[in-house]
Specification:
mainly beta; Methylamine Dehydrogenase, Chain H; 5-stranded antiparallel beta sheet; 4-stranded antiparallel beta sheet; globular; signal; Photosynthesis system II assembly factor Ycf48/Hcf136-like domain-containing protein; WD40/YVTN_repeat-like_dom_sf
């Protein structure tokens, strides 16, 4: 998940306007959210809906193997309100399309090579292989693991032309776990082994438009990345120097590896769960969103026993990860924002959206409080299309959601321009 280009632009604009004494203006596509505004005041929750009907089957679970074989577009990434991309496996071949009118019409993106489902499936990890990164309206990266190679495709003109680089990998049978690009200069990719090499993790620092990969180690002296053998992990940097790698393992501990020198050295510490979760173990951590001093991420906790439900915790830091607070958010226990199971789409460390119990929920304060948005059109559609493949807001008002039917055969793309209160079908 990328930090929305529109949001980032809005933050810079809001800071400038605040310095010059100007107010923030709204337009038809919504005001661009300022991180400084959202973090400096407490959001009022008066009138916010705290209870909603329970629909345990919505959102429905997504199985990656079934999704890949559904012969449909399985995700969407909008760079702006008009320009975006979608991709998936069609007739067993990976395909991509681009829109310039908010998803009403799509044009094929010609890829420089053929990637088949049979070829790519062995590289599926937490993310589907290949992995696509949309940095802005024209900058597209795609990473594919094939054998002993990491294939990196890069386009700077919206997919009209691609460059291709094949980077050697230390071993065969690797899977894509996490990808984070800051732009053309720096990025990171985390890979994990499979089969007898399942304990192996490899972390690479990508530079020069992903044409060079340098191995990094979170534990000094490790032959691989240095993570626990059973670790599930995600990586996220806020600039070329400062980054976090978060990991869970079978011991149930949540580990934070932090670097201030671009990944040359790392410091590790354990993050404690809220005291109410005594006996629970961290089962999965999701990619954080970091901006300047602030960072927010979500963790699922479980414990042994049929009567022990999953618990969801939102962690946040306001001081570059020096201190964290963790809050249990029951509204997110069955929530989903994309096909990977990410519980929330955070556009900034403060603003986030999700779908839970067949309704849209949102936060403006890093998950401290949640608003349930009653949207009859979306709720009705979710009963026919209960799988949430992608939830993507490009401003505080304007967002898209890609839904899929229970049988994986049909998808529907919806758009809102009023914070989610009403939705219109863009394409089905």
């Amino acid at each position: 998940m990328r930090l929305s280009r529109s949001f980032a632009t809005g933050m810079a604009l809001a800071i400038f306007m605040g310095a010059t004494g100007c107010g923030t203006a709204n337009n038809q596509t919504g005001a661009l959210v300022s991180k400084s505004m959202t973090s400096s005041k407490k959001t009022s929750t008066s009138g916010w809906m705290l209870h909603k009907p329970e629909h345990p089957g919505i959102p429905a679970t997504v199985r990656l193997n079934s999704l890949e074989r559904s012969n449909s577009w399985y995700t969407i990434d909008m760079a702006s309100n008009e320009i975006g991309y979608r991709w998936g496996f069609l007739n067993g071949h990976f395909a991509m399309e681009r829109t310039e009118d908010g998803g009403q019409n799509w044009n094929s993106v010609a890829l420089p090579m053929t990637l088949t489902l049979a070829q790519m499936t062995p590289g599926n990890g937490q993310l589907i292989n290949p992995n696509v990164q949309i940095l802005d309206e024209t900058t597209v990266y795609m990473f594919a693991v094939s054998g002993h190679q990491l294939i990196a495709l890069h386009s700077a003109d919206g997919g009209s032309h691609f460059s291709t680089k094949r980077l050697p990998l230390a071993t065969n049978g690797l899977r894509i776990e996490s990808v984070n690009l800051l732009g053309d200069t720096d990025g990171w990719i985390l890979l994990r082994g499979s089969g007898q090499d399942a304990a192996t993790h490899l972390l690479y620092h990508l530079t020069n438009a992903a044409t060079k990969a340098t191995s990094q180690h979170v534990t000094a002296g490790a032959t691989d990345a240095g993570l626990p053998a059973s670790a599930q992990a995600v990586v996220r940097f806020t600039n070329p120097k400062d980054g976090w790698l978060l990991a869970t393992a079978t011991d149930g501990k949540l580990r934070l590896y932090a670097t201030a020198d671009g990944g040359a050295t790392w410091r590790m510490r354990n993050l404690a769960a809220p005291s109410e979760l005594d006996g629970y173990k961290a089962a999965r951590v999701y990619t954080p969103v970091i901006l300047e001093q602030e960072g927010t991420f979500v963790v699922r906790y479980t414990r042994t026993g049929a009567q022990s439900p999953v618990k969801t915790v939102v962690f946040r830091s306001r001081d570059r990860g020096v201190h964290f607070t963790g809050q249990i958010v029951n509204e997110l226990n069955d929530a989903m924002a994309d096909y990977t199971g990410q519980p929330v789409f955070f556009a900034t460390p403060d603003y986030g959206w999700s779908i839970s119990d067949a309704r849209l929920v949102m936060t403006r304060d890093s998950g401290t409080s949640w608003k349930t948005i009653h949207a009859p059109g979306l709720e009705t559609t979710l009963h026919s299309y209960p799988r949430v493949l992608a939830l993507d807001f490009v401003s505080d008002l304007s967002g898209f959601v890609l839904l899929q039917s229970q049988d994986y055969r049909k998808t529907q793309l919806l758009h809102t321009d009023d914070e989610g209160s009403s939705w219109s079908v863009v394409q089905s």
